Amino acid sequence: MKTFGGKVLFLDRSDINTDEIIPAKYLTEVKKDALGPHMLEDLSLDGFDPQSEKTKDASVIVTRANFGCGSSREHAPWALEVNGITVVIAINYARIFRQNMFNCGMLAIELEEAKIDALFAMANDDVGCAVDIENKELTFTTSAKTETVPFSIAPFDEALVRAGGWVEYADKNL
Amino acid sequence: MGKTLVEKIFDSHLKSEPFEGTKVLNLDVVMCHEITTPIAIADLEWRGKDRVFDASKIKVVIDHVTPPKDTKSAVQSKILREWARRYNIRDFFDIGQNGVCHALFPEKGFIRPGYTIIMGDSHTCTHGAFGAFAAGVGTTDLEVGILKGVCAFRQPNTIRVNLRGALGRGVYAKDVALEVIRQLTVNGATDHVIEFRGEVIDRMDMEQRMTITNMAIEAGGTSGVCMPDGVTLDYLWPFIAEEYGNDKVKALDAFKAWWSDEDAEYARVVDIDVSTLEPVATVGYKPDQVKKLSELGDMKIDQVYIGSCTNGRLSDLREAAALAKGKKLAPTVRGIVAPATTDVYRQAMKEGLLDTLMEAGFCVTNATCGACLGMSNGVLAPDESCAATTNRNFNGRMGAGGMVHLMSPAAAVASGVKGALCDPREIMGEVTK
Questions:
Q1: pLDDT tens by residue, B330-353
Q2: Residue B130, CA distances (Å) to A139, B4, B126, B134 in order
Q3: Fewer CB within a 10 Å sphere, N or C end of chain B?
């Protein structure tokens, strides 16, 4: 199983598409590491800097609705992973992106809108997020407070995460 | 309770249900192109599992950047080409025979009603026009598909879209697709299949139906589907006549067995009277930001692009050429036509369509995905805009800083002639549909 948790990067917009996560011009790469420097390069979001320390230090993304819409490119989760981001927390996702995350053994966690709003209320501070898969809990920590939020995950998706991905799961079970 | 077409396909292809609601399906076709497949091949090699479940069920094309534009794209092509040869995959299409996957594979007769199909490409939903369950997937799903011939899905519910009435002058399948997306929004169909029904679909040919199912993903849909009927049968007949002993009645009965039952349950039903639709285009970075062309002010464009898996087929080129005949692109506009497949190119050439378009000032390129996703063959400069017959208008899609306006081929030609976004009825004159 992969490791999950760390500093949070907040992306305050819905419908962030896979072209924004990794532009198509980099899809000619055949090594995942080569995607690293281009993560979120075309993201249309005021004040966002893909090269900032905050972006580079992140291990968790918190965002709004329909994250990862558009293309099927698994280069999107790969670009996140090679930058150390293995958890995304959103209201919901495009289907293919969500499946790609779990297929890579990564976490695409869904929280209801009010909870996402509450997380964004912390966004001015430096926020850390710990992930407890056993107890299905996320713990968010700022300099001022600690908040624990329960989450749910579909049994199949959890099995993929525990196996390390779909290839590993299919190998053992199919 | 009856079943929908997709429920019938899930039931007939079910391999296992490891957890409630997760269904592992046996696959009839696994399609591969050079962008998303090479990393799957490399991973299979790295794992010591470099094999394929059934070479006859794997269809391979080099289409996204072809002929290659640089060393990296040439290497992707080479990996795919050598892999196809190594496993004796007969249905492999390279330069000289290739074309945009979702136009090429139907043309070759690879899609059948009731099939399960995956590809590492989001517009795989196109093939649902034949009454198949066809879904775009990532590279890992593709990899397991290649290796074991299966894919896991949450069983999708179905949204039924009933399309009635008659299309007005200057209004085409693309306008219908954009209206559906406008109504459903960009994630209104997530984890759902969109079933397109009604007299409008019944009257459409397969190319028009594919234009509509192609864009199901732009509303988040897992697939778009149509019921396989006599039109589907006529399209497929050269490929299946033998299989059905030349008996069309028998074949149509087999097709109709896949139809959604009268009492099937839908998550949602949307009724649209297409008679009220006008020619439209997107204005913005989301495919649901749809506006009537007649209501837009002066919005200059720099490029027209006619092509892609949405609108690069023969009927699209006929529609474009009919409008372009005797007209010229505005001097400020560059026009690019990329016929979707090699056969479309040749037929368009025989019919004089390419000559008409070139006379109007268009450049004709080979069949490739190219500019649609900003990889080659017509990338925009920052602050430029394009009237495009493609399917995505995302920020940077056709080149960083560029703006894509999605519309029908007729509207794209009209916009090119005017030099600004234009309702095709404005320049149709005596041209009638």
A1: 999 999 999 999 999 999 999 999
A2: 48, 15, 9, 10
A3: N
The pLDDT of residue B433 is above 70: no
The verdict on B136 touching A (C-beta cutoff 8 Å) is yes
* CATH number of the domain encompassing residue B164: 3.30.499.10
Instruction: Write b or e for each residue in B134-149: b if 16 or more Cβ atoms lie within 10 A of its Cβ, otherwise e.
Output: bbbbbbbbbbbbbbbb
Complex prediction ipTM: 0.97
> Can you give the pLDDT at residue B432?
44
Q: Which residues of A touch B39 (CB under 8 A)?
A: 30, 32, 74
Look at residue B433 and tell me if it is in a domain: no
In this prediction, the residues of chain A whose per-residue pLDDT falls under 70 are: none
Q: Can you name the residues that pair with A60 across neighbouring β-strands? A: A8, A87
Where among B213, B248, B271 does a domain terminate? Answer: B271
Query: Number of folded domains in chain B?
Result: 2
Report percent pLDDT > 90 for chain B.
98
Cβ–Cβ gap B18/A65 under 8 Å: no
Q: Is residue B396 part of a domain?
A: yes
Q: Which amino acid is at B97?
A: Q
Residues B302 and B256 in one domain: no
Chain A interface, Cβ < 8 Å to B: 15, 17, 19-20, 23-25, 27-30, 32, 42, 44, 65-66, 69-74, 77, 92-96, 99-100, 103-104, 154-156, 159, 165-167, 170, 173-174
Same structural domain, B264 and B301:
no
CATH number of domain containing A51: 3.20.19.10
Q: Give, in order, the Cα–Cα distances in Å from B405 to each of A98, A135, B176, B303.
A: 28, 47, 16, 10
Work out how many domains chain A is built from and give that number: 1
Pairing of strands B22-26, B14-19: antiparallel
**Domain membership of residue A11 as a residue range:** 5-173
pLDDT-derived band of residue B357, with 50, 70 and 90 as boundaries? very high
Q: Which residue has the tokens 């204005």?
A: B283
Contacts of B22 in chain A (CB under 8 A): 154-156
pLDDT at B429: 74
Structural domain span for residue B46 = 5-271
